[in-house]
Amino acid sequence: MKIVIAPDSFKESLSALDVANAIEQGLMQVIPDCEIVKIPVADGGEGTVQSMVDATGGSIVSLEVMGPLGHKVNAHYGILGQQTAQQTQPIAVIEMASASGLHHVPREQRNPLLTTSYGTGELICDALNRGIKHIIVGLGGSATNDGGAGMAQALGILLLDKHGKSLSAGGAALAKLANIDMSNAHPLLKECTFEVACDVDNPLCGERGASAIFGPQKGATAEMVNTLDSALSHYADVIAQSGVTDHRHQAGAGAAGGMGLGVMAFLGAELRPGVEIVMQTVGLADKIRGADLVITGEGRIDGQTIFGKTPMGVLKQAQLQNIPTIGIAGCLGDNANAVLEQGMAAIFPIIPHLSPLDDVLANAKTNLINTARNIGAVLMLGQR
């Protein structure tokens, strides 16, 4: 029996690889002779770098970069291991949040008028300097509303005011943008392919734009939202006037404080669903071929899982090969049965009894092992 284990992380408790290892341990207690294939996966959000590095036998690069408030922070990105004969060049995977995430900014200091994505640009620059020509960038979790301006500046692109001076950091400064000079941009940018994991469809500006929808969680008041929205609109005007395609209305342009627009304008990036990029990059379709069962999971399975989350991405790949799929979750939320309606064979929560959250997180590994062991026992009953 071949069983493929392809879970996401259980946030705040176990990485995707830890989850896969625990499920394997439980299954092997009752099916010791089964073939287990572990593929840690993610949906492009938090944990994507670690999952893809673990899945491909890659490595982590750690470095100090500029954080959202201009102070140095520790950040990292991943370089994937080779997966196929066709993949002869290394691929870097960068989570924007690692350098420019909200977790770097104390709640009382959150101010998207001032925060910058410069550190994300430094991560990209480091990967380019290593000769990497394929970079995947995961958006989300950012503290910024600068439209990717800081990232662009870190890559040598000059954003100038009417006096020919470089713009200061932050979303508010975009209102002063008068000219964009790309002549000093990093020379390897044009040689690199950028894929961007983006799972929101917000345009850049307006009532569904970056500032209105995501600004408040980054510390923006109602007045700040108006200032930021106007600044982003002006920013998009100047970008369009510079000869770059106007992407402000494209779905996803407003992701991560307008970083969606920035990566399209300055990196020539394509925005794609995160889970789609991850599944393709780790070669999930090839690895599940010939499997009798696929097991996936995440910390919480609920009605939102069907909208681009990891278990749904895994399920779709398995369905293409008529392989049954089971989901395991830390807990089941409202309308979790929606995944059953999409074709998942069964879903299992791992929590055996009501407990304080700290205990639930601390016991996640044990509970996963026990749940997987019970699933394995039921599978063996079906073999009799």
TrEMBL record:
One of its GO terms (biological process) is organic acid phosphorylation. InterPro entries: Glyc_kinase_flavodox-like_fold, Glycerate_kinase, Glycerate_kinase_RE-like, Glycerate_kinase_sf. Keywords: Kinase, Transferase. It comes from the Bacteria. The keyword Transferase applies. GO terms for molecular function: glycerate 2-kinase activity; glycerate kinase activity. Its EC number is 2.7.1.31. PANTHER family: GLYCERATE KINASE. Belongs to the glycerate kinase type-1 family. This is Glycerate kinase GarK. It comes from Shewanella oneidensis (strain ATCC 700550 / JCM 31522 / CIP 106686 / LMG 19005 / NCIMB 14063 / MR-1).
